[in-house]
Amino acid sequence: MVNLAQQERDIDGVIFTPLTIISVADGDILHGMKISEEGYQGFGEAYFSSIHHNSIKGWKRHFEMVLNMVVPIGKIRFVLFDDRKESTTLGYFQEIILSEDNYGRLTVPPMIWFGFQGIGEGRNLLLNISNIPHDAKEQENKELESITYNWSKDG
């Protein structure tokens, strides 16, 4: 079990890109990703994942996949943990909340542990635009208790 003091800072390689919401009378337009943006590293697949209020999904990391996560509906807390031996942010956590109020894309490079929690009252939906198609052999999961983190913070 990893049990470190919860030191937080931006983790090397993780990018937050503010995105635009264009208000239109008949319904808004929410940008997701352009090929010209820093987080784009190719296209493998796009999928949606929902998470219920106060539910937590984690911990997971990918060996090759670059994640580009956007929350168009609801409010989701993402927690990242860096245990890469060569990293200058080894042992650090990074937390970011994505929602309509903090609309943007979270780019997570390979080998970063991440989990996420639904903190919006209604539907919480994320879109992941990944650089490669899903492959169960290029990822690993850990039990939530295996990396100690205080998930009960206010969102």
Tell me about this structure.
With 155 residues, the protein is mostly beta strands. It starts with 14 loop residues before the first strand and ends in a 14-residue tail after the last strand. The N terminus is likely disordered.
What portion of residues belong to β-strands? 35-45%
What's the CATH class, please? Mainly Beta
Task: Provide the number of structural domains.
Answer: 1
Q: What does the average pLDDT come to?
A: 92
Helix content: under 10%
The end-to-end span amounts to 26 Å
Classify the secondary structure makeup into a structural class: mainly beta
Low-confidence spans: 1-5
Give a count of the beta strands, DSSP E runs of length 2 or more. Answer: 12
User: What overall form do the CA principal axes indicate?
Assistant: globular
Question: What can be said about the biggest beta sheet?
Answer: 5 strands, antiparallel
CATH architecture: Sandwich
**Total helical segments:** 0
Order of helices and strands: EEEEEEEEEEEE
Strand order of the largest sheet: 1-9-6-11-4
